[in-house]
Amino acid sequence: MKENECVIIGKTNVGKTLFVINFAEYLGCKILKVESVYPDGRQFERLFSIKEATLKLTDSNPHKTKCLHKINVTIPVGKKKKKVLIIDSCGLIEGIHPEEEIRKAISQTLALVRDSKIILHMIDASAVEKKGTLNSLGEVDYQIAQFAQLRSGYAILANKMDLLESKNGLNKLKGEFPANYIIPISALYKRGFKEVKDFVVRNV
Ligand SMILES: Nc1nc2c(ncn2[C@@H]2O[C@H](COP(=O)(O)OP(=O)(O)O)[C@@H](O)[C@H]2O)c(=O)[nH]1
Ligand SMILES: [Mg+2]
């Protein structure tokens, strides 16, 4: 088990990448050093400003992220600091993706879940009731929850709480996952970030 790793997983387009970028900024990063690791082993490092990262790494179309993005952050805890490696991953889908590149990235994501101490499972609260869209609550979310909830470092992030329809979505999520810790957040407006930070600090 990798002690200081915190992985963000969930379906495609739920807001994982935007969350990672804005959360890193919230923790004090001005320049992001992003290490991209591809399923075939290729890796490279790039530096981004927060604005650049948002433009280049997030997208309203699905599967913008086809590899792992690793970002080192330091979280102040009292007078000390904790180092955490935040890992953004390729979005999951229901069934089998037609593109091999994405299938490989998805299995790369799943392997990570096995090893990471902290698993932040992101669900798009605004799409919980929208059956059949790529980012709606689906079978794969129940599978993640079943697999990961045995761990103390597992939490569900109910994202896009800035949207109207998310309120009902959050209530539905609470009913579906009564035993899990659910943190309502808005990756876009940096809401709920203190709760996420506290959860991460408690578990590293
Ligand atoms: N309104 C709203 N939109 C969001 C939020 N988080 C992400 N998005 C949008 O959702 C889309 C997918 O975001 P992205 O981070 O690329 O999703 P990923 O595929 O899970 O990494 C983008 O158009 C984002 O701007 C949020 O908290 N509120
Ligand atoms: Mg992404």
UniProtKB/TrEMBL annotation:
Please list the residue ranges annotated as the G domain. Answer: 57-148
Fetch the InterPro entries from UniProt. GTP-bd, P-loop_NTPase
| Xref: Pfam families | MMR_HSR1
GO MF terms held by the record: GTP binding
> Where would one find the signal peptide in this protein?
none
- The name this protein goes by in its record: GTPase Der
Corresponding gene? Answer: der_2
